[in-house]
# Entry
Amino acid sequence: MKEDKKLSRLPMEVKVEMAMKQAVAKAIAENKRLGIPVAVWQDGKVMHVTPEAPGVSEPKATYRISNKKKLR
# Structure
């Protein structure tokens, strides 16, 4: 319950980024489990690499709250 309250106070853009990172990590894990290459954007091109390749895992993210006013 406390975690839900903390999440509800975060700005929408932070929640969206967190959800996208979770979805990417889930997709990479699924592709790894099935042995399917992962499509990544590299040097202006789409490349298919194995999920075990270096740099395919989801990087750590830093979240910060913007001082901008929310649009309503």
Observations:
- The chain is about 45% helix and 15% strand.
- Residues 40 and 47 are 5 Å apart (CA to CA).
